[in-house]
Design brief:
Blueprint lengths: L3 H15 L9 H15 L4 H25 L8 H16 L4 H20 L7 H8 L3 H16 L2 H18 L4 H7 L4 H18 L6 H11 L3 H13 L9 H14 L1 H14 L2 H10 L9 H14 L4 H11 L4 H19 L5 H8 L1 H7 L5 H17 L1 H13 L8 H11 L10 H14 L5 H18 L9 H8 L1 H19 L7 H15 L1 H24 L10 H18 L5 H19 L3 H18 L21 H6 L3 H5 L26 H15 L4 H19 L20 H13 L2 H11 L8 H20 L9 H16 L10 H4 L5 H18 L8 E2 L5 E2 L9 H13 L1 H21 L1
Antiparallel strand pairs: 1-2
Helix pairs in contact: 1-2, 2-3, 2-4, 3-5, 4-7, 5-7, 5-8, 6-9, 9-11, 10-11, 10-12, 12-14, 13-14, 16-18, 17-18, 17-21, 18-21, 20-21, 21-22, 22-24, 22-25, 25-29, 27-29, 27-30, 29-31, 30-31, 30-32, 31-35, 32-35, 32-36, 37-39, 38-40, 39-40, 39-42, 42-43, 43-44
Length: about 950
């Protein structure tokens, strides 16, 4: 039986509730609330009437809340009655029978739906706004919390029932109930999302024009915190399309497209699911089903819808585009869809309209760069087109793409990177592409950073050379503007710096200027590489290749002195580096590579010097300095292999004083032929002289520098070379003039003459250089001091030989060589006119006395009277300088000594004598 106290409470509650419509005094509500809570605890059978009373209390609280926020939206709201009810109901759910949970859950859900529907009819709100509004109400917050608490206590079967009730309430009170479903869906995200998707699919199947606003709003809200569950539910729905028993399978794909159109948030999840499940079988399945799709989802409409969705896609849009481009050759609809997307993307880009796809494309530029190297034309062109469109928004994309494509490997069979770069720098027809120079600067900077540790530097230089050659040919439409050539010219300072660094590195490694011969260099280099490992060997090999590539690049640019776009600093630097490259090329062991490098050097030297006097001057100076000093070992010059021994310095005065009074009285000095303390000075080895091929290579280099079409400029160039030789070999600025003095005067210049003679002995390449200068008359006249020094030294030496009675012929080899070479030079340069020009043949068959006599009377005295000056040479109509033998024939006093000497030895010179004297005399008599 019911206790009397409970009956009294029930009577009070019933009487109070029955008069609610008439209104109660303020003090009556707390008593009524107290009674209702007591009845709920002690008399569960009265729960329905108690819940109805609670609904009135909650309704009143919500109404008061609405009125309050209209006055002050920032105010904080509390309700003691709601708090008491919440505590009592939570106590029932937590501590009482499990049967209370589904009861309270169903009641609170219905009440939430009713209150949301009642108080939201004149308010248009999305789910986020509705949550913000109703969570500020104590009553609504209490009901939502009770539901969440009840859900936590439910069994699996009860959960399914509660979710069904939730969705049923959602259907009855949509869209005002959406926020409740969205908030409570977080308790069972996967189940709620799956149920919402199925509800939406059923609604879409019944009405293809349904907006599905509520479903989309709920799913969008839940996806913020439960994206993983949303993707899983979508994947299950898509996988269900493949099941023949699925009644709604034919409408699933249009439904998913509809969801994607309505919400960009859902679109991202749908795209990820699509990329995960897509395969060839999926395409076949769609082909079978699309005929049963709604009429608004025809093939063309679907392509329009999908293209619009791709443009809205943020993440993974790059992957979709590349997938379409790979499928385009096989499927026509992929080709059409790709074209729709790219055309619309171009329009948006040119009109500066923001599109989410562009953001992802800019993020995924690394992947797009890889696709630029794809052998498929569709993929390659799509990637390039996307990069070009991105370049209009950010020029750094353009510059980075040029750098990446230049860094890509290519070979004779695979030049995809080259073709991509050609297409890319051509830009979009009718638009201006960004400046190419920063892109090339990035590539050159990458070479600096990478060094020789990878193939990136090699790839950049090789591709750049190939591109420049194509631009020079002008066969490609995209390269006719010479964009890359101009950018390379503007970046020449950086290229020259790279070239200089590489050449300095390789020269330090080879130590050419300190080695005695090339075999020793290669041996030491090989040992060094074996010690340091294969990595160092690869680095050296890369360095060699890159040096040649930069030389090819400069050669392809075709920079000539007359029309050089470079400033003077770069022009002079290029001249210096071209000479350094020439000398380094001589050390190449690969014959084919060496020959190509040498011929390339000729072209560089010639182009640098034409029309540029400053470049010509520094080039000739560097060439002569290199051959005579820096790289003298390459040309057979004598190189000191060991440094001079350190020895104690002693005073020459003290050494003289130690010799005693006799030495002082005789006024003699201590002048030793050797080194004090070390004995006589050992004779140094003779210079080997340059090999014939390397000698010709060097002379060709000088000819390349001086090979100007204008003959006057060519002669001026050789004149400068002659003056440089005088500067290097005759350090004494006195007596360097053209005239030859009296023979007695040679005693004054003997030390200087011997030094010059020693230079020719130590550096045999000098004979070849003078021979080249002599062939270009009258430049050799400027080297008069050198010829005079050689002539004076050999004249005195032959005179000394004539006094020696025990001399043998084999000891005259070096002296005879110098004499013959000197006379050859003077004959070649026409300093000695006929018949004196045959002297180099005659002297080889004379004894020392006769040689000294002929040199003094026929050479020295003739040169003293006829100063070797350029005015002696006439210029013909072709611009060539020469001396007319009929006019320049020397007087008899310079010819008769030679004639008499040859007559004394007529048995040796019969034929030669006839040729030198008789023929010319017969010619005169006829005249």
């Amino acid at each position: 039986m019911i206790k009397q106290g409970i009956l009294n409470e029930l009577q009070k509650f019933v009487s109070g509730v029955s008069t609610l419509h008439r209104g109660l005094p303020l003090g009556a509500h707390p008593q009524l609330l107290k009674c209702s809570l007591t009845l709920l605890q002690e008399l569960p059978a009265a729960r329905n009437i108690v819940f109805e009373y609670f609904a009135v209390v909650f309704d009143t609280s919500v109404n008061n809340y609405i009125i309050a926020i209209e006055k002050d939206p920032q105010a904080t709201h509390t309700d003691d009655a709601i708090s008491e009810i919440q505590d009592a109901l939570e106590d029932l759910v937590t501590n009482s029978s499990a049967a209370w949970s589904p009861l309270i859950s169903n009641w609170s859900l219905r009440l939430l739906g009713q209150l949301s529907d009642k108080h939201s009819r004149h308010r248009a709100m999305d789910i986020g706004t509705a949550c913000t509004l109703w969570l500020g109400s104590p009553a609504m917050r209490c009901l939502l919390g009770l539901n969440a608490l009840c859900f936590d206590k439910l069994t699996s079967a009860e959960t399914e029932t509660c979710i069904s009730n939730l969705l049923a309430t959602f259907v009855n009170h949509s869209p005002h109930m959406d926020w409740v479903v969205a908030r409570l869906g977080g308790c069972f995200p996967l189940k709620v999302i799956s149920k919402i998707l199925q509800c939406g699919l059923k609604g879409f199947s019944g009405n293809y024009n349904s907006t599905l606003d509520s479903e989309v709003g709920i799913l969008g809200y839940l996806s913020r915190s439960h994206e993983k569950e949303l993707k899983f539910a979508l994947k299950e729905m898509v996988e269900a399309v493949k099941q023949p028993s699925n009644i709604l399978a034919n409408h699933t794909i249009p439904y998913i497209l509809h969801l994607a159109e309505m919400s960009e948030i859902l679109l991202q999840s749908i795209v990820h699911v699509f990329l995960d499940v897509f395969d060839e079988s999926f395409i076949k399945l769609i082909k079978q089903q699309y005929r049963q799709w709604p009429s608004s989802y025809s093939a063309m409409n679907v392509l329009q819808i999908i293209s619009g969705l791709i443009l809205k896609t943020g993440d993974s849009s790059t992957k979709i585009l590349m997938m379409l481009s790979k499928m385009a050759p096989e499927y026509m609809w992929c080709n059409e869809l790709l074209e729709l997307v790219l055309v619309e993307l171009e329009n948006k880009t040119l009109e500066d309209i923001h599109s989410p796809i562009m953001k992802d494309l800019m993020k995924q530029k690394t992947e797009i760069w890889k696709e630029c190297l794809n052998e498929s034309p569709f993929v390659q062109q799509t990637a390039l087109w996307v990069l070009l469109l991105n370049s209009f928004r950010s020029s750094i994309i353009y510059h980075q793409t040029i750098c990446e494509l230049l860094s890509s490997p290519t070979n004779d069979l695979n030049k995809v990177a080259i073709s991509s770069l050609i297409r890319f720098i051509g830009g979009v027809y009718g638009t201006d592409v960004p400046d190419t120079k920063p892109g090339l600067a990035l590539a050159l900077e990458r070479i600096t950073l990478e060094g020789n540790r990878s193939n990136v530097s090699y790839n950049i230089l090789k591709n750049l050379v190939h591109m420049l050659r194509l631009e020079k040919l002008g066969t490609s439409v995209h390269l006719r503007r010479q964009i890359l050539t101009q950018a390379t010219l503007e970046s020449m300072s950086k290229i020259l710096s790279l070239w200089e660094t590489l050449l300095d590195t390789i020269n330090d490694e080879l130590e050419v200027n300190l080695s005695t011969d090339l075999s020793h260099v290669e041996k030491r280099l090989r040992v060094k590489r074996e010690d340091e490992g294969e990595i160092e060997e690869d680095v050296a090999e890369n360095c060699h290749t890159e040096i040649h590539l930069i030389a090819q690049l400069i050669d392809v640019l075709g920079i000539t002195g007359k029309k050089s776009p470079l400033n003077m600093t770069d022009t002079l630097k290029m001249a210096q580096l071209s000479v350094k490259y020439f000398f380094w090329s001589l050390t190449e062991t690969d014959i084919n590579l060496r020959d190509k490098a040498i011929h390339r050097s000729y072209a560089l030297l010639s182009k640098n010097c034409i029309g540029q006097k400053a470049a010509l001057a520094i080039t000739l100076r560097e060439l002569l300095e290199g051959a005579l000093f820096t790289y003298g070992n390459l040309f057979g010059s004598i190189v000191d292999e060991e440094p001079e021994k350190t020895r104690k310095c002693e005073s020459l005065l003290k050494l003289n004083q130690q010799q005693g009074i006799a030495m002082i009285a005789s006024r003699s000095l201590v002048l030793h032929a050797g080194v004090i303390g070390d004995g006589p000075k050992l004779p140094s080895r003779d210079a080997q002289g340059p090999q014939h091929d390397i000698k010709n290579i060097f002379l060709n280099a000088i000819e390349a520098c001086c090979a100007d079409p204008d003959l006057a400029i060519k002669i001026e160039s050789y004149n400068f070379a002659a003056l440089l030789l005088v500067e290097y070999l005759s350090t004494d600025i006195m007596y360097n003039g053209l005239p030859w003095p009296e023979e007695e005067f040679t005693k004054v210049t003997m030390e200087r003459d011997l030094q010059i003679r020693r230079s020719f002995k130590d550096k045999p390449i000098l004979w070849s250089i003078l021979g080249l200068i002599a062939s270009c008359r009258p430049s050799i006249c400027l080297c008069s001091v050198l010829l005079r020094a050689l002539c004076a030294s050999v004249l005195h030496q032959w005179r000394a030989k004539s006094v020696d009675n025990v001399i043998t012929n084999h000891k005259n080899d070096d002296l005879m060589f110098v004499t013959v070479e000197l006379l050859k030079l003077m004959s070649l340069s026409q300093m000695l006119p006929p018949p004196l020009d045959y002297l180099y043949i005659v002297v080889q068959n004379l004894d020392p006395t006769e040689i000294a006599y002929v040199l003094r009377e026929c050479v020295w005295n003739f040169m003293r009277e006829f100063v070797p000056s350029p005015i002696m040479f006439g210029c013909d109509t072709m611009g060539l300088h020469w001396r007319d033998p009929s006019v320049a024939r020397p007087p008899s006093q310079f010819i008769d000594p030679l004639r008499h000497t040859m007559q004394k030895n007529i048995k040796k010179f019969g034929t030669l004598f006839y040729q030198m004297f008789c023929i010319q005399d017969l010619g005169k008599s006829k005249v």
